[in-house]
Here is the input.
Amino acid sequence: MKNKKLNLYDLSIPNDYNLKSIGITQGLLYTWTDCRIKFLLAINRLRLKKSPVNTMFGTLFHAGLETMYKTNVKSFTEMFNLMKNSVIDEIEKEQRNLNSLTIEEELWDKWLISCSIMFPKYFEFYKKEILRIKSNKNILEVEEIFEANFNCNYKRVGKIDLIFKDIRGDIWIEDHKTKSRIDLFNMQQVLSIDLQGLFYCTSIENLKLIEIKGFIHDIIRKPEIKIGESILVFKSKLKNKIEKDPSHYFKKIKCVYSDTEKRLFNSDVKKKIVDIELFLNNKLHWYKNQTSCMKTFPCDHLNLCLNSSGYLINYKKIETFFPELEDKNEN
Ligand code: SF4
Here is the structure.
């Protein structure tokens, strides 16, 4: 018997998703406010098939930072080999699952080269701070998956890259982001990342009963890759550029949150949770939110929404509700 083709208009609320036992991530909460179609697809665990090479730079860089904070490796070569091997295994596994896609060798090589050039530079750029954080038990958590229950109604889940204590004893959460574009004046982006900061800070405060001073967005610029440019030229250009201006590639934005901001945020989330509950009980409808289709980047589901047939072409059903807790995807 032929498999019935999935169609957006046939999708319903899945039985296995609920806010109490599965919970909600900052990403899914953002998706809810962004567009209900996106949310419906996400809770049905339907994702567009994409080549894992697209997210390779972010995955590698995260693995490198995790290795750096968790272990006492002696050299960058040792650290780089450690992270490279584990990530390559993951990507190859994903590749086998996708079956129909082939790894673009050129991109693969260039992302590996980018990481091998940029990682030591990152360390050099933040050396003093990294060494201080690594010393004297200032690291509280690295790559921690948290589950924080709120009033027995729902739980918030997420993955935190780093929690550390600063020189004054204040506790910070740091998140590493790899981005191809950094526009510090783009308020939309700043607001969306603020949502993440407050979500993480208030969740950890609720879970661990400690005060979190604020959230640090550690942004690493993904280098531009020109297809067809020789590996040697690409390598030497990147080396020169980063040598000349490392601050172009590495930026940190610190956000300090007051008690009032945290309280207001928690109350906003509570209201959104009420709406989501209604939606999950079929008491709120879904509709296209056209204002969200084209932002900095077009929505992943644009082709689906442009096509009135509603057929989910090139989608896959994934195992987990929150793939972001396993892999760090880039924006
Ligand atoms: S393309 Fe627009 S309407 Fe469709 S899911 Fe994305 S944001 Fe929603």
Notes: The first helix runs from residue 26 to 34. The CA atoms of residues 96 and 163 lie 35 Å apart. The radius of gyration is 21 Å. Residues 98-103 have pLDDT under 50 and may be disordered.
